[in-house]
Design a protein that fits this description.
9 strands; 12 helices; alpha/beta; single chain; 2-enoyl-CoA Hydratase, Chain A, domain 1; about 15% strand
Length: about 260
């Protein structure tokens, strides 16, 4: 399998069939533009077909895991029917390609994780998170419905009460709080996160592959049951992108001021 076309995702083959994937736009805290978002949605089908890969580990270059979608991309999608329709398809592919990938995925959340980055971080089968990382779904603060991954995974991980609180308010949590409420699997000091993720990946890569993959498939049955709620939320997100609030939310973020929603 040749991953050379993934310009914003670096890949490194490790021992025992572990593939390390690094989101690589550190100058913008690994925020996803259209090209990177598309690559994140597609790479899991290549991992599934890759006979040399047993486990994938994903992390971010530099200080961040991923700051989500970059504001320039948000501005290009807002009010643009064709771009919103394309993004809706990619959002669905990103979630379902991770859910349906037969091989375990481990996330090494080494810093801030929001938006599309949080999708990857939380939909990984095992998430290793820095204690001081900041995690959150800020869609409502942008003026968009919480689509992406929120409806399919947050209630399962941390319960409906916490999911409602954080998704309706947009408040972020640090890694320690994320572990306390069940949002991530394990929390460590930032400098230990990647090493621990690779250690866990090695355990998975040297275990019974059929047993591990079938266990993942069974557990992800819960996510497939929640699929209709995700499909609905993703459509709602793109619907709100066609209104005025997203443009105002993006402008407020650029100008570092509170938004004035209609």
């Amino acid at each position: 399998m040749d991953y050379a076309s993934y310009h914003h995702l670096l890949t490194e083959r490790r021992a025992n069939g572990v593939l390390l994937i690094t989101m690589n736009r550190p100058e913008v805290y690994n925020a996803a533009n259209e090209e990177m978002h598309g690559q994140l949605s597609r790479i899991w089908t290549d991992v599934a077909r890759d006979e040399d890969t047993r486990v994938a580990v994903i992390t971010g270059a530099g200080k961040a895991f991923s700051a989500g979608g970059d504001l320039a991309m948000v501005a290009r999608i807002a009010g643009n029917y064709d771009r919103a329709t394309q993004m809706l398809g990619e959002m669905s592919d990103l979630v379902y390609n991770m859910v349906n990938c037969p091989k375990p995925i481990v996330s090494a959340i080494n810093g801030v994780a929001v938006g599309a980055g949080l999708v990857v971080g939380l939909l990984a089968d095992i998430s290793i998170c820095a204690a001081d990382a900041k995690l959150g779904d800020g869609h409502v603060k942008l003026g968009a419905a919480a689509g992406d991954h929120a409806a399919i995974i947050w209630p399962l991980l941390c319960g409906m009460a916490k999911a409602r609180y954080h998704l309706l308010t947009g408040e972020m949590v640090d890694g320690a709080e994320a572990e306390r409420i069940g949002l991530v699997s394990k929390v460590l000091p930032r400098e230990e996160v990647l090493a621990e993720a690779l250690r866990v990946a090695d355990v998975l890569a040297t275990g019974s592959q059929l047993a591990i993959r079938l266990t993942k498939r069974a557990l992800n049955g819960w996510l497939r049951v929640a699929g209709p709620a995700f499909d609905q939320s993703a459509a709602y997100e793109m619907l709100t992108f066609m209104g005025p609030d997203v443009a105002e939310g993006a402008a407020a973020l650029r100008e570092k001021r509170p938004p004035k929603f209609s």
